[in-house]
Amino acid sequence: MKKLKIGIDIDNVIADSYPSFLSNFNKVFATRIKYEEIYDFYYLEKHAGISHIETKKFINRILVDEEIQLNIPPYKDVQKILSAWIKAGHKIHYITSRPNTTRDITYKWLEKHGFLHPGTTLDLFNAAQHFDKHRKVIMEYKKTIAQNRGVELFIEDSKEIAETMEIPVLLLDRPWNKGKLKKNIKRVRDWSEIDKFVGKS
After folding, report:
1. Interacting residues of 138 by C-beta distance below 8 A, sequence separation 6+
2. CB 168 within 8 A of CB 151
3. Which listed residue, of 39, 54, 178, 186, carries a Cα 20 to 30 Å from 118's Cα?
4. Conformational region of residue 122, where left means phi above 0, alpha means psi within -120 to 50, and beta covers everything else
5. Which of 144, 179, 181, 152 is nearest to 168 (CA)?
C-alpha cells in the first residue's frame, strides 16, 4: 500500500458540525430549517429571511463559542481509522477554512477526540472576515495549502472546493454538494468507504 499525504477538512468531514450549528441557528432566528434542506452551506439567510451580515455575525460567534464547539461529536469510527492510517505510514494534514481566531478551540477539539498525532499538521484560514462574499479566496486557499503540503488525496464536503483541486478528492455526500462531479472527485457515503479507498491505493 502506498503511503499517502492526505489532506482532511474538519467541519462535516471528521466533525459532525452542521446539526449543532443548525440547531443553534434555528433557536436564535426562530426558524425551522432542516438539515436536508441546506443546499448552500454558507448562505442560510436564503432560508431564514435575514441579512447576510446577520448570518456572518452568528457564524463568527458560534465558531469561538467553546461550549458549543467542544461538544460537537466526531463521525463514527474516524479516530480509529485515522490512527490506523498513521500507524501504516500515511501523513495527515488538517486543512480547514475556519479562521485563525478558532485555532485554540480547534486544537482543543482535535485533542479531546484523539485526532492529534505526531506529524499531523493544522492549517486555518488567515482572514479576519471569514464568511463573507470572497468564497473564491477560501477555495484557492485550500488548494494552495494542499499543494504546499504535497497532499496527494483530499477529503472534503464542499463541492466548490473539491472542484478547485487537481488531485483525487473524496467528497462526503452532503445536502449542499449535490450534482455532477469532475473525474478526479469521488462521492463517498461515510468513513468506512473512505477507508476502503485508501486501503486500495
Report:
1. 97, 125, 130, 161
2. no
3. 186
4. beta
5. 152
What are the angstrom distances between the C-alpha of 47 and each of 58, 125, 180, 181? 15, 26, 24, 25
| Residue closest to 21 by CA, chosen among 41, 47, 51, 46 | 41
Task: Give residue 60's Cα distance to chain centre.
Answer: 16
Strands (E), the chain: 5-8, 91-99, 121-125, 153-156, 169-172, 185-188
Element (H, E) at 135: helix 135-148
Name residues whose C-beta falls within 8 Å of residue 68's C-beta, 6 or more positions apart in sequence: 20, 24, 62
pTM for the structure as a whole:
0.92
